[in-house]
Every structure is written in C-alpha cells, then in structure tokens.
Amino acid sequence: MDISHIPVLCDKVVDFLKPKSDGVYIDGTVGLGGHSTAILKAAAPNGHLFGIDLDTDALSVAKDRLQIFGDRFSLINGNFAEMNALLESHAVHAVDGILLDLGVSSLQLDAPHRGFSFNHTAPLDMRMNSGHENEAPAETTLTAMQVVNDSPVDVLVDIFRRYGEERFAKRIAHRIVAERQREPITTTTQLAEIVTQSVPKGRFKTHPATRIFQALRIYVNAELENLMAGLDVAVTLLKSNGCLCVISFHSLEDRIVKRRFQTWARTCICPPKTPICICEHSPSVEILTKRPVLPDVTEVQHNPRSRSAKLRVARKL
C-alpha cells in the first residue's frame, strides 16, 4: 500500500502550538505521523511527543516515520479520551500542547479490508481498533455489519439522522431491513447499492451512501462521545499558555468543539436573568480562532481530502 501522507493544516497547527525544545506535546490521533513529524522538528533538539492511536497499523507506520527522532517520541495504543490515564504510566501529568486530528485516516480509508470506504468491496467493519488484516476481531467490539443487520428500524433511523444528518434516513433504514430479510448485508458495496436504490436520483453532489457510512463509523467507534471526553481531559492536562488544536471534518464534530471552547471561555455562568454577575467565574481558556481556520486553495488542490477540514484552537489560561 502507498502510505504517502499529507497532514492537514500542518503549518497552521505548528504556528499555534509554537513547539519549544523543553516542551512536551500530545498528538492524540497520531495516524501516519505527519503532524507529529512537524511538531518534533519544530521542538528540536529536546522536545518530546506522545503519539496516541487506537489503530495498531497506524502506530506501526508512525513508528517507522518517527524513528529519525530517536527517543524523543513515545507511541501509545489507546483512546485519546483516556490520554490522562495513558500518560500516567509515563509519569506525565501536564503538557505544553495537544493536537486532535479527528475522523478517519488516509490509511484506514485506503485499506480495503477495514470497510470504511464504499470504493472497495470489503466486510462491513469500520472499527478504528480492528488492527491488522489477519488479526481475529475482538468479539466484544461492535462492527458496522452487526449494526446494519441486527438493529431495529427505529434505531437505524436515529443513527442515520443523528450521526449522518441524513434527510432520507427513514427510507434508507426501511430498505435495509427489507433487504437483510432476504440475505445478510455483509459488504461495503452491498450496503452502498442498497442506499443508492433507496433515495431519489440526481440529488447528491457526493455518493448517496457518504452520510450513511459516516453515521455508521461514528456510531461504531463512539466518536462523538470520545471527542467530548477527550476535550475535557485535554484542557485539564494543558499547562498555562498551552494550546489545544482540534481539526474536525464535519459539522457534528465542529459543533461540539466550538461549544466546548465557548463554555470554557465564558466569563460569567450566572443564570440568564441575573441582573448583576455574582458567580465570580473565571474563564479557563482563550479562544485563538474566532472563526475556524480552513485550508487554502493550494492545500485543497494538493490534498482534496483536506477540503472539509476546520481547525479551532484554544489557549489554557
């Protein structure tokens, strides 16, 4: 597999983090190591980075890519929502900067056996932590195949509406239930065809199954729940003046990040009708990006997958 990788909004992330030689940083979604490489270069000669990822395939690639930095990096297999616990074993309780690059990685999208893309015929898996192609899947881990074949129609409708913002959720869910009664829905292309047949023709700028695949992936991996937990953990781990950078790729993620930042930055938490502030509340962060930072035209041309990226940054007070 070609594992060439262009990290999204990389220069902007480094500009906000301002890595320093005595700093400690977390890449909570290390992926293929693109952002981590840039952070470590900027933090030379002594800055240290902890790279966290659920995907063991990604960690293997990142390890090869980052080995040029010697012992200045540590890779951890785990969930960024638990980064405080993961770093305790390294005796680290505060850091100078944190990056969360959300969503699915290029490695996962381009690996047919992972089941993230309808461009390849593959089992409906979609687990971030499913590991190597030949590894036996964990029996306790939910897969997209289980969701599609076992969920009641009202649950499918809720998943598609909540996590995919799909306007034809009800129609698609009923079609899925009808088709799975004939035979189990087991592959990516099988599901994509069912979705395509369920919706009106010619109304989509992208493939009709895009939102359904997004919804299933988010649900299977509890991505929004992990994001909310990870943001709360991140702000407690940051040192004063440390920055939290979050790159999101769809409105559900971006909305959560925006509202969390706004909550942390509030100067008053009194009830709305209180005439005079009595809460003596102090904000915990300063929002450095009043509007999200977007990739420029040149970046999108070189890396089309960056087109929907949004970067928001907050600085710990």
Task: Explain how this protein is built.
By secondary structure, the protein is an alpha/beta fold. The protein folds into two domains: 10-107 and 223-316, 3-Layer(aba) Sandwich (Rossmann fold); 130-220, Putative methyltransferase TM0872, insert domain (DNA polymerase, domain 1, Orthogonal Bundle), CATH 1.10.150. 41% of the residues lie in helices and 14% in strands. The protein contains 13 helices and seven strands. It has a seven-stranded mixed beta sheet, with helices on both faces. Helix 2 (34-42) links the parallel strand 1 and strand 2 (48-53). Helix 1 runs parallel beside helix 2. It is globular, with a radius of gyration of 21 Å. Mean pLDDT is 91; it is low at 132-140.
Characteristic terms for this protein:
Rossmann fold; 317 residues; 13 helices; alpha/beta; DNA polymerase, domain 1; seven-stranded mixed β-sheet; 2 domains
Short description:
The chain is α/β, with parallel strands linked by helices and 317 residues long. The protein has helices spanning 10-17, 34-42, 56-66, 83-88, 106-110, 144-150, 153-164, 169-182, 188-198, 210-220, 223-237, 251-265, 297-302; strands at 24-27, 48-53, 73-77, 95-101, 238-248, 285-287, 310-316. It folds into two domains: 10-107 and 223-316, Vaccinia Virus protein VP39 (Rossmann fold, 3-Layer(aba) Sandwich); 130-220, DNA polymerase, domain 1 (Orthogonal Bundle).
How are helices and strands ordered from N to C?
A: HEHEHEHEHHHHHHHEHEHE
The general outline is globular
**First and last CA, distance:** 44 Å
Question: Would you identify the regions where 5 or more consecutive residues have pLDDT less than 50?
Answer: 132-140
Structural class: alpha/beta
Kindly report the name of the CATH homologous superfamily of the largest domain.
Answer: Vaccinia Virus protein VP39
Biggest β-sheet: strands ordered side by side in the sheet: 3-2-1-4-5-7-6
Radius of gyration: 21 Å
Sheet having the most strands: 7 strands, mixed
Tally of contiguous helical segments: 13
Q: Can you tell me the number of structural domains? A: 2
Overall pLDDT level:
91
Q: How many strands?
A: 7
Supply the CATH class of the largest domain: Alpha Beta
Helix content: 40-55%
Strand content: 5-15%
